[in-house]
Amino acid sequence: MRKHPCLAALLLAVFLAAGGIFLPRAEAAFGLSDPLDGDPNYPLTYSHANSFEYLDLSSCTVRQEDGDYYYAVGYVSILADVEGNHSSYKTRCYRLVNDGKMLQCSQDGTNWTPIPYYTSTGVRKYIKEHGYMEYIRRYHAFAYFMFKRAFRQIYQREYPDGMNGEVM
The pTM is what? Predict the structure, then answer.
């Protein structure tokens, strides 16, 4: 019997839609867990559709330079598809500008990309006006929620943002 790629994609879409109804978390649809493989050192920091990121808590480091704070973290990135889960270990760098406003940035190549300040109300409004995919791009959701979890690991307290512990 010949495999048909469109049929496989359709079956995956149906499975994912059913997963949203019947499964408590999206990663369950792909056989993933939170934390990754039951290891508390690898908590899920953010997922959307078939992309998942797990922070390596033992990798979180920080250094201060000229008043700014630089963070480096390692993480497992998983892309799940009909052929299985494809994972890779990556690093992400952050800068927390200590100018009284505490602007966080993530490094994109050689450039620092500011991550907008979050508030629950502002995020909901943005999603309603622009859609969820645009929210992920504009607010750098994957990078931001990983930054928050690394901040908690390093300082043993929550990052003081306007989200009050919410993850969207």
Answer: 0.78
